[in-house]
Amino acid sequence: MKYHTIEEFIQDWQYEGSSTQKILDTLTDEALSQAVAPGHRTLGELGWHLVTSLHEMLSRTGLTFEGAEHESEVPTSAKDIADGYRVSSENMISAIKEQWNDKKLNETVDMYGQQWPNSFTLGVLNTHQIHHRGQMTVLMRQAGLMVPGMYGPSKEEWEG
Q1: Which contacts (CB < 8 Å, 24+ apart) does range 79-83 have?
Q2: How far is residue 4's CA from residue 129's CA, in Å, rounded to a whole number?
C-alpha cells in the first residue's frame, strides 16, 4: 500500500489503529507470557513490538514525536502496553499532521538498507500491525482471552 495523501493514511490508521488498540486493551498481565512455542515471541513481546515500531520506523523518516523506544524492555503490565500504543499512536498522528504535507510522502529515505518513499513506509507500518495482530489473535485464544472482531464479529462475538 502506498498513500497519496496524509488524509488517506490517517483514515486507514484510524481504523487499523483502533483495531490494534482493541487487541491490546483485551490483554491481561497473565496472558503476556503466552507463546506459540518456545523461542517464539510472547503475546507481550508482540504487543510491545507494535508499540515501539511506530517510533522506530517513523523516526528513520525524520519525523519527531514522543514514543516508546525500540530497545526498551517489554512491560510486565498489559495496561502499560495498551497505554503505550495509545500515546505513541496519538503522538505519531499529531506529528504527521504538524510536520508533513502530501509532498513529504514522495521523499525517499534509507529504510533498512533500501530507499523507501515515505508513502510506502506508512503503508508498511499499517500492514505491519495487521500482520502482528493476526499472530496475536492465535496467542490470545491459546491464553483463553476473547478476541475482539476486526473486520466484523469474531467467532467469540457471534457465538456469544
Answers
A1: 81/24, 81/27, 81/32, 81/44, 81/47, 81/48, 81/51, 82/21, 82/24, 82/25, 82/27, 82/47
A2: 20
Decide if 5 contacts 13 (C-beta within 8 A). Answer: no
Residues 6+ apart with CB under 8 A from 103: none
80-130 pLDDT, tens digit per residue, is 999 999 999 999 999 999 999 999 999 999 999 999 999 999 999 999 999
Tell me how crowded residue 43 is: count the other CB atoms within 10 A of its CB.
26
Whether the CB-CB separation of 145 and 28 falls below 8 Å is answered with yes
Phi, psi angle pair for 31, to nearest 5°: -85, -15
**Angle subtended by helix axes 6-26 and 78-99, to nearest 10:** 170
Q: 3-state class of 91 per DSSP?
A: helix
19, 131 contact by CB (below 8 A): no
pTM of the model: 0.94
